């Protein structure tokens, strides 16, 4: 499926090679998730009338969770960095300007980091936004019923996606817990302010608008 709700996967050798590589590397859950991330990102970018490179966006979306796959389970780096480096290595075989390679790297490396991507290039912002939509239903209402239905029909979530993606995060990070720390600011708030409550991503995922 290359065209969903008016959004097309780029028709280029690079995009086709990326699709094949990721399809061969990831299981169905991560491959379909990565594909949906591209469509949510592109739909949001179009709605916001952002000028983005669809090919770079596709590469970043498709590679963004490669670091969670079995080949990286014993890595001691952040899974986002493993995925970013994998994309950079893949792109080295193509005539891609270094500035564009760096943009893809940053989009992947920052896709779990809130508050920063929206101040950077559109591709970086949109990958983070697309991942947030697919995993946690962030800005769910910003997409029409027809758009959501079209994307999910083309790349199914499956009935167990919520628990499956949590398991994928766990499998991909349990051997490198030291890489999962955030900005540490919530540690300070929790220490100083007894009323502060940390955000719980798993609860956000399980109670997201998806499948309700």
Summed up, the domain count is 1
CATH-level-2 architecture: Orthogonal Bundle
Rounded to an integer in angstroms, the radius of gyration calculated over CA atoms is: 17 Å
CATH topology, by name, is Hypothetical protein af1432
Low-confidence stretches: none
Overall morphology: globular
What is the averaged pLDDT score?
A: 95
Keywords, separated by commas or semicolons:
Hypothetical protein af1432; two-stranded antiparallel ribbon; mainly alpha; 212 residues
Description:
- The protein has helices spanning 13-25, 28-47, 54-63, 79-91, 98-109, 122-136, 145-154, 161-173, 185-192, 201-206; strands at residues 3-4, 7-8.
- With 212 residues, the chain is an all-alpha fold.
- The protein has one domain (9-206): Hypothetical protein af1432 (Orthogonal Bundle), CATH 1.10.3210.
- Strands 1-2 form a two-stranded antiparallel ribbon.
- Strand 1 and strand 2 form a beta hairpin.
- Helix 2 packs across helix 6 (122-136), helix 3 (54-63) packs across helix 6 (122-136) and helix 4 (79-91) packs antiparallel against helix 5 (98-109).
- The longest helix is centred in the first third of the chain and has 20 residues, at 28-47.
- The protein is globular, with a radius of gyration of 17 Å.
- The model has no long low-confidence stretch (mean pLDDT 95).
